[in-house]
Sequence to fold (332 residues):
Amino acid sequence: MAGTAKTLFRVVTEPCPQTSNKVTVVGTGQVGMATVFSLLSQGVSNDVCLIDMMADKLQGELMDLQHGSLFLKNPKITASKDYRISAGSKLCIVTAGVRQQEGESRLNLVQRNTDVFKHIIPSLVQYSPNTIIVIVSNPCDILTYVAWKLSGLPVCKVLGSGTNLDSSRFRFLISQKLGCSTSSVHGWIIGEHGDSSVPVWSGVNVAGVRLKDISPKMGTDDDPENWKSIHKDVIQSAYEIIKLKGFTNWAIGLSAAALANTILSNQHNVHAVSVMVKGLHGIDEEMFLSLPCVLGNSGVESIINLRLSEEEEIQFQASAAAMHEALKDVKS
Ligand code: 6V0
Fold:
């Protein structure tokens, strides 16, 4: 303690160095920083640790955030290339790796980001053996599987942000067409966070009124209102935004922070996240795909047993087949 502080304070007890909601974010690019900003500005965590390979960028981001402390909730913010700084994290969010270029699919990133994970995941678990890991990097479902294998953690502790974002896009676009708020529209996108994702039209509802009961052709090719185009727009969203601004960040940052909030505050909210789906909906192989799950302090607490229509079941299995094909090429 500096001389002035010694005179100013009469110490009663030493301050506790640990917090109970430490979050480490690996990768301080566009997505990582949007996640960090959402975590801090919403007060989801007051102990946030940043890790990246670029020392100057880390230091710049650290200083910039620290200078906003007055407007936040006096958070502890740390940053380093060294994983020791992440010790004691309750949650680690991984956003590191390469992102899609214009027109590039998420699956194309697989081997490059798998190689990046071989260093990141074991290092996180070394310093936080009881952590929960949320994977945001793409291709999200494959990398969640890779992270689970590399981590040695129980399957409930490794999840992907998956279609939490796609479901938000889906609800927003439906809400615009209906003219009510996004939070009042309930609907889910499941399966791959990517081109083979599945819209669960059979469950879309407002105040418990199923839209399928009003428009039975909803989501089909011969629907006069063409609701199906909303799912196409969900899939196209990332490509469109990347074409316009080069990357996507705000919505995924908010989505990751929402997952963190549910997990750290043990809220048991249901989110569509990427989880092990072997044994569900006719899938025999180990793989991760999104389904609505109850999340809390233990990670993934339960997976909702969805009542899918025959068509949705077939589409989910097609998403699984695409995943199975992509996983064959991964050298982990
Ligand atoms: P970016 O802005 O290029 O940032 C990536 C960051 O990762 C950079 O700061 C790198 O220095 C860092 N990095 C790379 N390798 C390592 C390593 N070995 N250790 C530590 N840090 C490393 O990319 P951006 O932030 O835009 O995207 C990051 C990832 O998120 C990409 O894989 C995207 O495809 C993915 N996204 C996932 C989304 C989702 O919904 N799941 C949404 C948007 C992007």
Remarks:
- The radius of gyration is 21 Å.
- The pocket of 6V0 is lined by residues 26-32, 51-54, 95-100, 109, 113, 116, 119-120, 136-138, 140, 161, 165, 193, 247-248, 252 (CB under 6 Å).
- The longest strand covers residues 288-296.
